[in-house]
């Protein structure tokens, strides 16, 4: 019954979800925290996906789990493997434009994670703390490293900017997790807050890049049934919560006319993050704008899912702060929070989430 009333509240607009937190619209009161059942996936159960316009965030969903409690060092390491595979896949294309990918620092990141895992299995407090702070130092270095990588790729409008951006997010999460394991809630919270500023500003830049010079391209007639104004509005509302569908349409009114008058010209300014000329076969003088637009149109539905995934990832990252604040206000240890389990002895068939409902109203700030 619990999932039903939550789904109903989301569907009728009483509740809203921000990452792994469901809150009451208007008051901002925390209704429940969402947590996967010890899974490393980030999928949502079917009954919650039915809450249209609230939980459906595209098939890519997010690289991050709903709760910070579930995204431990092993999960972070798994995510790193996924990102490294994606970078290796992009390597062949980048070679065609004389670009090289530096994957060497992933080994350093993994070494920091291994050190953190080792630290929190030590029995002596002084040894545990010494190893934990050594891991934290390496994770701080990873943050500086991947911030520079991300900025460089964003500047070039690169196809691999999102991989570095997601790696940067994981570096902040891993460091904050170390502080949580040490019981340092204030430090963990401050690191999440700093990370949120660093990550959000770069996700914003990346999303604006993918929206292209003419975001109305996503509303072309051929995308009827695939992309509607509501999906585009949700992206713009992440940028500016004050915008509604009418405001977004007004932003695109002139762009729609421009797209209709010069349908191929838009392709000239497409970023490499969407399409590069070396990917398209053309005549003696390379692909025409018409060739570029034709291929770009094939990719736009998938690109929109990437945008939605980045928005969702950012919301989950920022919601981790709220989870940490809740643990501190409830006055329980991080390890006790990890042990929370449903009252039922066994997991219900088909259930993928558990719901953590605070026993009292919590004074929490949630910006997402």
Brief rundown of the structure:
Residues 73-100 form a coiled coil. The protein is mainly alpha-helical. It has helices at residues 2-11, 46-49, 73-95, 105-119, 125-155, 161-181, 185-210, 229-239, 245-261, 289-330, 334-339; strands at 15-18, 21-24, 30-36, 353-356.
Which helices and strands, and how do they pair?
Layout: H1 2-11, E1 15-18, E2 21-24, E3 30-36, H2 46-49, H3 73-95, H4 105-119, H5 125-155, H6 161-181, H7 185-210, H8 229-239, H9 245-261, H10 289-330, H11 334-339, E4 353-356
Antiparallel strand pairs: 1-2, 2-3, 3-4
Provide key terms for this protein.
coiled coil, mainly alpha, transmembrane, 4 strands, four-stranded antiparallel beta sheet, single chain, 11 helices, transmembrane helix
What does this structure look like?
The chain is mainly alpha-helical. Helix content is 56%, strand content 5%. It contains 11 helices and 4 strands; from the N terminus they run αβββααααααααααβ. The protein has a 4-stranded antiparallel sheet with strand order 1-2-3-4. Strand 2 and strand 3 form a beta hairpin. Helix 4 packs antiparallel against helix 5. The longest helix is centred in the last third of the chain and has 42 residues. The chain is globular, with a radius of gyration of 22 Å. The two termini are 27 Å apart. About 6% of the residues have low confidence. Keywords: Coiled coil, Membrane, Transmembrane, Transmembrane helix.
């Amino acid at each position: 019954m619990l999932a039903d009333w939550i789904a109903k509240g989301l569907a009728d607009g009483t509740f809203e979800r921000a990452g792994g937190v469901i809150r009451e619209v208007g008051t901002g009161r925390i209704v429940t925290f969402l947590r996967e059942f010890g899974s490393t996936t980030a999928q949502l159960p079917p009954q919650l996906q039915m809450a249209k316009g609230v939980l459906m965030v595209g098939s890519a969903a997010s690289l991050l789990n709903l709760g910070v409690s579930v995204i431990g060092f092993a999960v972070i390491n798994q995510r790193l493997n996924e990102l490294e595979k994606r970078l290796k896949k992009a390597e062949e294309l980048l070679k065609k434009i004389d670009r090289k990918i530096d994957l060497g620092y992933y080994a350093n990141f993994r070494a920091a994670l291994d050190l953190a895992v080792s630290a929190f299995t030590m029995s002596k407090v002084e040894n545990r703390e010494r190893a934990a702070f050594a891991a934290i130092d390496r994770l701080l270095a990873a943050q500086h490293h991947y911030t520079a990588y991300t900025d460089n790729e964003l500047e070039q409008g690169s196809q691999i900017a999102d991989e570095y951006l997601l790696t940067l997010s994981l570096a902040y999460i891993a460091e904050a997790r170390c502080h949580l394991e040490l019981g340092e809630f204030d430090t963990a919270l401050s690191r999440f807050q700093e990370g949120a500023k660093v990550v959000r500003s770069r996700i914003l830049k990346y999303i604006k890049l993918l929206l292209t010079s003419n975001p109305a391209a996503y509303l072309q007639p051929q995308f009827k049934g695939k992309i509607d104004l509501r999906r585009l509005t949700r992206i713009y509302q992440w940028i500016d919560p004050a915008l509604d569908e009418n405001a977004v349409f007004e932003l695109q009114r002139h762009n729609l006319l421009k797209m209709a008058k010069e349908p191929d010209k838009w392709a000239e300014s497409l970023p490499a993050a969407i399409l590069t000329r070396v990917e398209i076969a053309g005549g003696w003088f390379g692909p025409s704008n018409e060739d570029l637009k034709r291929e770009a149109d094939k990719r736009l539905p998938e690109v929109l899912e990437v945008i939605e995934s980045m928005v969702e990832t950012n919301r989950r990252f920022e919601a981790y702060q709220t989870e940490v604040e809740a643990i501190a206000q409830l006055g329980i240890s991080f390890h006790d929070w990890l042990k929370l389990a449903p009252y039922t002895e066994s997991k219900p068939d088909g259930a993928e989430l558990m719901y953590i409902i605070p026993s009292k109203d919590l004074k929490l700030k949630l910006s997402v």
